[in-house]
Structure formats: structure tokens, C-alpha cells
Write a structure and sequence with these properties.
Length: 85
């Protein structure tokens, strides 16, 4: 996968990668809300690796609300523009 360190692509072969997904608010501590387990590296063509957008490939019924969605879209647009030079 383009832009991903080879060691990270190979890591799931040694065992699952487990991430605690956490959220926090101003003045509050981080709280876990889910666990993400990665058991294999996803297949990706040369154009897919770094260009993945959550709003183009979101899970049905699991999308961020309007405010976070607007921030994410703007960030992805800026990131893509920066990669193009």
C-alpha cells in the first residue's frame, strides 16, 4: 500500500492489532467507546492507500453528524490538495 510503512502492512501477520477507540470532551478525560481489531492488511491498489475518504466509503447508518462531517470533509480536501502539490 502506497504511503504505509511496510512494517505496518506486515504487522497483522504476527497477530491482530488491537486499538482502543476513545473520545473526550473539554475538561473531561478520554473514555473508550469501542475496540478496533485488525486481523489482516486490507488490499489496496496504488491509488487507494492514502486517498481513502470516510465520507465516500462510510458504513450504512454510521456517519458523523453535520458539524464533524463538515470538518472532516474540509480536512480531507486540504490533505488531497496538499498531496497533489
Amino acid at each position: 500500500m502506497r504511503g504505509v510503512p511496510a512494517s505496518l502492512v506486515r504487522a497483522p501477520a504476527a497477530g491482530p492489532l488491537v486499538f482502543d477507540l476513545c473520545a473526550g470532551a473539554a475538561g473531561r478525560s478520554w473514555r473508550p467507546f469501542a475496540v478496533l481489531t485488525v486481523r489482516s492488511a486490507p488490499p489496496a491498489g496504488p491509488k487507494e492507500g492514502a486517498g481513502f475518504g470516510i465520507h465516500e466509503h462510510d458504513a450504512r447508518g454510521f456517519t458523523p453528524g453535520p458539524a464533524p462531517a463538515a470538518v472532516h470533509r474540509a480536512a480531507y480536501r486540504g490533505s488531497r490538495a496538499g498531496r497533489r502539490g
